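ESCALATION

Customer reports they have been waiting on this structure for their group meeting. Please prioritize. Original submission:
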Amino acid sequence: MIIRALLFLSVSLPGFTASSVPLNHVDVKAAGMNPARIADIHQRMQDFVDRGKAAGIVTVLARHGHLASLDAVGYQDLESKAPMRTDTLFRIKSLTKPVTCIGIMTLVDEGRLSLIDPVEKYLPEFKGQKLNPCGDRAGYACGLVAPHRPVNIEDLMKHTSGLRAPESSDSPAASLAELVAKAARMPLLFEPGTRWDYSNIGYDTLGRIIEVVTGKLYDQYLYDTIFEPLGMQDTFFYVPQEKRARVASVYTDVNGTLKKADIREPLRGRDLPSPAGGLFSTAHDLLRLNEMMRDHGALDGKRVLSAAAVELMTTSLTGDLKAGWAPGMGHGLGWEVVRNSEGMYRYNSIGTFAKGGAYRTHEWVDPSKDLVGIILMQRTNGGGDVADEINAFMAMAAAAIEQ
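Update from on-call: job pushed to the front of the queue and completed.
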């Protein structure tokens, strides 16, 4: 049975913590949105489930700091028919990256590092790193050379570092320190700052820098600095045993049929807390994180980031470089940013900042509309950041705005 969890009246949501911005109950009127159009979003998401495009979907919208909708359709697990719930836990994959950048920016706010600092200042193993002028090819005149400048922290955050992942090994790294040290020995793919090339290992390197600067393990620093202050009680790298029944299954489309993907659960001691994509979270926790960004770095009277940090993170910093996975996007620090009219096809304003994850998780903040949206699925293929479900939800969310 498909669960209908659409709430578009002023209804309390059990389990949601009280907030100075009322995220604990739905109030479409205060959000300035149209209840009928909000209900249409539920039906559209249900249609994707009915056609076998997704096992289940959770969506959430907030505007002016008021919750406009929280909706769950379909199944958390198709085989058991466990219904999708609004508190289901998702592997959010690359939505982890903005969180890692928030961790770095807290250190910039405290004057403990600068974005233009070379990585080698904190990780000496990067000293003397070489560049392959042929990129990932071999051939004539492909001898390694010194880059014009070393990779800096901002390069890692913008995906302009040229850093490449270390060769695969039968013995996985036991720590971020070991993993990043292997990457430091790899030649760069291009001159730092000259191209945009998505780099997970660049974000793993950011996690290691956090450890070196703070003296704490990466995941512990995020908990102390971000998750605990924001009340993100369901955000983890390792899901506690008592909450694992709430984790959604991951599916792959195989010739038009959803098949369960072989995803191994991360267990402490065997898997690293990946700064590039290792977090589990819920719609509610992600809403709190994005509301903090919408409100210039603070939530519930607790400041996580300076307003200056938020402004820089959500500004396109990649110039004319082709960046991002959707039309019209540039890249800030952790988020992609709508930089021109090509990016407005989903009714996003220029300046909207967004991030997508590999399993069809997506979040965005549109400052001009004062709108926050999150859509969570668990599917390995099917359109990436421009998947039909994401395109439909984003456009319909903006279309529901009344005033």
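Sent to customer with the following note: The two ends are 36 Å apart (CA to CA).
Escalation resolved.
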